[in-house]
Structures are given as structure tokens and as C-alpha cells.
Amino acid sequence: MKRKKYICMGILIFLISIISIRILLNHIKRNADTKIVCGNVTNYTYYDRKISAEDFLQFGHNTTYEEMVECLGKENGRYGYGGAWPYYELSDGTYAICTCLSGDRMRSIVIVDKKKKLYTLLEGDWSKE
User: Are residues 27 and 90 in the same domain?
Assistant: First the structure.
């Protein structure tokens, strides 16, 4: 009888530990103010949402920054220097970098991870309007 009691207590402690670790990791993720995006340290703001790369397929070269924000919400941060393009954290842990600034139209969309560019969703269009 004591053995069953110890086994139940062990399982209970194990489950509580797993739940505590998940809560802690979620807290750390939500309170981080920087992320590494494509090898660069960037500013970061957490938003509780689920976005995938497929959500960006609706955007073309005529999409404006304001239309993108209206559809997806505010970006998680800015990537790069000078232009500092907006990026969105995707639910699979990758990031979508959108080459589009306020008052401008979409130039390109690339999907990256922490280290490198993975693929292009929207090829670059650098022609003048």
C-alpha cells in the first residue's frame, strides 16, 4: 500500500513540475524584449496570437503597411538597420520579415529563423510606383 502511495505522489510531483516549467517558459517568452532574427538581435514585443506563413500569402506588391497591420495586428519588432523592416513571429517559431514601411507598399516577404533566411513568400519588387 505504501508503494502505491509513493508512486502516486511521484507522478503528482512530476506533473506539477512539468506544468511549472511550461508556465515559466511561457513567462520568459512573453517578457523578453529582444529576439535573434536571422542572426541579428532585434527589439521584440509579445502578442498573444497565432500567425502562420500562409497568412502572408494574401499580401501582394500593392499591399500597404497599414493594410498589413489592419489584417495581422502590430508587428513583433523591427529587423535590420536604416529601414528596419517589420517582422512577425509565426506560430512555428520562424519569422516573417516584410519589406514595407508606413505609407509604403509591400516590396517582399521572407521567412527566416533565428540563424538564416529559409524561403521567400513574395519576391522583391523594387520598381518605382
Answer: no
For residues 107 and 124, is the Cβ–Cβ distance under 8 A?
yes
Domain that holds residue 64: 34-122
Same domain, 47 and 78: yes
**Hey, what's the cell of 27?**
513567462
- Predicted confidence (pLDDT) per residue in 13-40, tens digit: 888 888 877 776 665 665 568 888 998 8
Q: Mind giving me the DSSP string for 65-76?
A: HHHHHHHH-S-S
To the question of pTM greater than 0.90 for the whole model, the response is no
Alpha helical stretches, state H, 36-101: 65-72
Say yes or no: 55 and 101 in one domain. Answer: yes
List residues bridging with 36 in a β-sheet: 41
